[in-house]
Write a structure and sequence with these properties.
Layout (H helix, E strand, L loop, with lengths): L31 H15 L6 H22 L5 H25 L1
Helix pairs in contact: 1-2, 1-3, 2-3
Length: 105
């Protein structure tokens, strides 16, 4: 027995494939040390008149600013300007203490 001839199926229109959106290049993450240096530098300048608190904040801003600047110069992180600003503010916060200590001693 012969098989009945199959009718060719009408061609289905292919569904258009959705293209993936082009991916943006990944940005380096922001340096946490640079942000911390900026925040501590601002606090150190504002509270320079508080004997220990202002000085500790300013010294930490100098340390974190240097480390954050190192991270950003290597290219691992963004935020070089925040690191520099924190470093400068930390130095500005320490200057009144240095002047005061020179007057006393």
């Amino acid at each position: 027995m012969e098989e009945p001839a199959r009718r060719p199926e009408p061609e289905r229109e292919r569904e258009p494939r959705l293209r993936e959106a082009p991916k943006a290049p990944m940005e380096a993450p922001m340096s946490g040390l640079a942000v911390a240096a900026l925040i501590l530098g601002i606090i150190g300048v504002v509270f320079f008149w508080v004997p220990i608190f202002g000085v500790i904040c300013s010294l930490l801003a100098i340390i974190f600013g240097g480390a954050g600047l190192y991270q950003t110069q290597r290219g691992d992180r963004r935020g070089g300007s925040a690191a520099v600003a924190g470093l400068v503010l930390g130095i500005i916060g320490v200057i009144p203490l240095t002047a005061l200590l020179r007057l006393i001693f």
